[in-house]
Specification:
The chain is of the alpha+beta class. The chain has a single domain, classed as Jelly Rolls (Sandwich). The protein has 3 helices and 10 strands, in the order H-H-H-E-E-E-E-E-E-E-E-E-E. The longest helix has 23 residues. The radius of gyration is 17 Å and the shape is globular.
């Protein structure tokens, strides 16, 4: 029995698939990232964890990739997606390194949304200053700030500094 295109579209998507689509990755980029991640994971897991250790360790430098127009935002952002040795989990971790003038575009996550994903997001500002359009308001952010954007709330983030990158640790958690 063959699968129709309509059946393929209705199949549930993983949080990683939704995140990749939302960040406008091509199939070639996904395959390239998967190849890079597998070699990094095999090497780093063998070196850091040792045999049957029960944990995994990722290095920020090994997972950085440039992405243009994240959620329709301005410029190119370096994104570090930590897949933790492909372990299943409802929580995901990303570091944004946003140059001056660049942004993650304003977007909204909704329950059941398989395009952007059904995520609550938690932004922690590691370094720099910027602003977040949140639910129609402009909220200034600076190092040490923690911002929660739940399902249904429009949000994005922009580096407003003239020099230096805005570094953000982003946790996004799948809701059901």
């Amino acid at each position: 029995m063959s699968t129709t295109p309509a059946q393929l579209e209705s199949q549930p998507r993983s949080p990683c698939e939704s995140w990749s689509e939302a960040h406008q990755l091509t199939r070639r980029e996904i395959i390239g990232l998967a190849s890079m991640f597998s070699s990094v994971f095999l090497t780093s897991a063998a070196q850091a964890a040792g045999p049957a250790s029960g944990y995994s360790k990722e290095s920020e430098a090994n997972v950085a990739q440039p992405y243009g127009s994240v959620h329709g935002g301005d410029g190119t952002i370096s994104v570090r997606f930590f897949p933790f040795d492909k372990q299943p989990s409802p929580a995901h971790f990303v570091i944004y390194d946003i140059p001056p003038g660049a942004s993650e575009g304003v977007h909204t996550h909704h329950l059941g949304d398989m395009s952007l994903g059904p995520y609550d997001e938690y932004y922690y500002i590691i370094e720099g200053q910027g602003e977040m359009p949140i639910d129609g308001q402009i909220v200034p952010v600076t190092a040490g700030d923690h911002i929660h954007t739940p399902l249904g709330v429009a949000h994005g983030i922009r580096n407003t500094m003239r020099e230096g990158n805005l570094r953000v640790f982003l946790t996004f958690i799948a809701r059901s």
